[in-house]
């Protein structure tokens, strides 16, 4: 979902003078239909990446690599047909490696020019460079000055063989002066691939079941909204509602996914508790980086039950 939300401001800018076609996965159709109901949408094959309750993310990705590369080939073949049918002359791909074509300008969006992995790191970065060569340019959604980076070392790689352009943080939210009532003691933002999303949800519901705090939990899934004793549960919050919740919260607990961090940065939020997805090296790095540079508190999921969250702000 993070890749879907961060492309919103680019679509809004580009549609002013261009005809836009959105390539979407089925799971994101409801999101794009709500924001861009008038734009043409074409379904792309899903990568269907899954996590494990026990295996680290990097290992699960390695095991799924043959299927992922198969999807990359399928989406590239589909793109060729789309370009021919709709006379497309520019392709912008957010982390979909198969959306390139040598007949039109193809741009790749990523904040991760360095692939972090405890094993096979050299191979992963070699493969990443090989895949990036197929594009004409890379757009990095971050600040260019190294001292201002939100992504830290992830976006620093001099070996990338094509031009790299820093386009600034991208968020569906708009920065500016807002009224901050701080009426919510704790806002829990859940995201990511199952089963880890639900594991974290259950741990937090259990931890705060007797709390007297005003707590709101945004699940990031489409189901009927409900109240869990003292906790207000929202299944899916649109842009306006989510922005209001964030700016009126004293503390936010969330994963350290890059798109979530960009959103919080744009809204000027500071009192963060980050719980990186276990075994996801990118999130673990971003959590450490934001702890060192943006004063975020980091709690690993394995330590969450016994942790003192020190809410406030």
Protein model, in words:
It is a single chain. This protein is an alpha/beta fold and 313 residues long. It contains 9 helices and 13 strands. The chain has a 7-stranded mixed β-sheet, with helices on one face. Strands 3-4-5-6 form a 4-stranded parallel β-sheet, with no helix packed on it. It has a two-stranded parallel sheet with strand order 1-2.
Strands, helices and their partners?
Blueprint: H1 2-6, H2 8-14, E1 21-24, H3 29-35, E2 40-43, H4 57-86, E3 90-94, E4 105-109, H5 121-132, E5 137-140, E6 164-166, E7 184-189, H6 196-207, E8 215-218, E9 226-228, E10 231-234, H7 239-247, E11 249-254, H8 258-266, E12 272-274, H9 281-294, E13 297-298
Parallel strand pairs: 1-2, 3-4, 4-5, 5-6, 7-8, 7-11, 8-10, 11-12, 12-13
Antiparallel strand pairs: 9-10
